[in-house]
């Protein structure tokens, strides 16, 4: 492959991933007009349109999607081998990009990241918080983080945390003005803080289980949040009841700033897992990260 052909293919992949000429040009370090000229030259050489352009979006055509699927693994392989060669030094180096839910940052990464960064000073870590079901291949992440139940079967999954238990919590001030619920269906009489699901756009139905029976309750309230952190703050402020990971509010429960209700109905989910495509060639830096965060039950 000639150098100009390689440049064209790399440019095309970046635009297809970013769905934007502006963002792709910024990542490639070229001007938007130069990038547009490169893509036009590639399309002219192949005799087929690869990208559908509108005023708001850029997306691969059928031919473009086929080309992405065909060449992307080769570019990933090249990047992995370059990383592997550079890792022949005394210690791994490189940049790791992850996407994860907001609560996983506090539950999994915050306790262990400082030690990892000290042990591997040549590795940098980028954590992008997104509670949706992000396409890690399309968005060019090294890996994603989800609860075990939510990972596709074609992904490699590595457990990085213990089981996660959820709790319904509220402040003493809130319960001073409202009756304590004795069963999940009582939540219909309460002001509950809802969580908006970014992928579907709907509201998350609170999940419960008891005596082997699992069910969900759709709650109502004046507040809707997109992240767990603000939902915890809302409960602390007395604005309503929140449904959150118990470990994130344990200190508030211990201090009496929050009270848990319906604990007999609280569900437990498989812990958080790091997941990535099975065909991806992991770099030494990424392999070191996986081993450092692999969950080992004590």
UniProtKB/TrEMBL annotation:
- Which Gene3D superfamilies does this chain map to? 3.40.190.290, Winged helix-like DNA-binding domain superfamily/Winged helix DNA-binding domain
Q: Which GO terms describe its biological process?
A: DNA-templated transcription
UniProt key word Transcription regulation: yes
Q: Name one GO molecular function term.
A: DNA-binding transcription factor activity
PROSITE patterns in UniProt: HTH_LYSR
Where is each HTH lysR-type domain found? 4-61
State the Pfam families in the record: HTH_1, LysR_substrate
Q: Does the keyword Transcription regulation apply?
A: yes
Q: Which InterPro entries match?
A: LysR-type_TF_proteobact-type, LysR_HTH_N, LysR_subst-bd, WH-like_DNA-bd_sf, WH_DNA-bd_sf
Q: So which domain of life are we looking at? A: Bacteria
User: What's in the keyword line of the UniProt record?
Assistant: DNA-binding, Transcription, Transcription regulation
What's its job? Transcriptional regulator of the ttuABCDE tartrate utilization operon.
The family line of this record is: Belongs to the LysR transcriptional regulatory family.
- Tell me the protein's name: HTH-type transcriptional regulator TtuA
């Amino acid at each position: 492959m000639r150098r100009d052909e390689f440049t064209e293919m790399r440019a095309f992949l970046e635009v297809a991933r970013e769905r934007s000429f502006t963002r792709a040009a910024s990542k490639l370090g070229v001007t938007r007009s130069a990038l547009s000229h490169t893509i036009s030259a590639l399309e002219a050489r192949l005799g087929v349109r690869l990208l559908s352009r509108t005023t708001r979006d850029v997306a691969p055509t059928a031919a473009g999607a086929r080309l992405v699927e065909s060449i992307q693994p080769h570019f990933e392989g090249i990047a992995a081998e370059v990383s592997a060669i550079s890792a022949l030094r005394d210690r791994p180096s490189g940049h790791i990009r992850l996407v994860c839910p907001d609560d996983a940052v506090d539950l999994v990464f915050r306790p262990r990241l400082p030690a990892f960064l000290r042990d591997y000073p040549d590795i940098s870590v980028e954590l992008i918080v997104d509670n949706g079901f992000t396409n890690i291949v399309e968005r060019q992440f090294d890996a994603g983080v989800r609860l075990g139940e939510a990972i596709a079967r074609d992904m490699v999954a590595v457990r990085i945390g213990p089981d996660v238990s959820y709790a319904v919590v509220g402040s003493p001030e809130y319960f001073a003005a409202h009756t304590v619920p004795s069963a999940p269906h009582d939540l219909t009489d309460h002001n509950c803080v809802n969580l908006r699901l970014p992928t579907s756009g709907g509201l998350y139905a609170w999940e419960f289980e008891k005596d082997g029976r699992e069910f969900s309750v759709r709650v109502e309230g004046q507040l809707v949040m997109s992240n767990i952190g603000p939902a915890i703050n809302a409960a602390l402020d007395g604005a309503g009841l929140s449904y959150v990971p118990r470990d994130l509010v344990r200190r508030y429960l211990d201090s009496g700033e929050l009270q848990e209700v319906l604990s007999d109905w609280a569900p437990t989910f498989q812990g958080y897992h790091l997941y990535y495509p099975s065909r991806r060639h992991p770099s030494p830096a990424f392999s070191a990260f996986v081993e450092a965060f692999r969950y080992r039950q004590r």
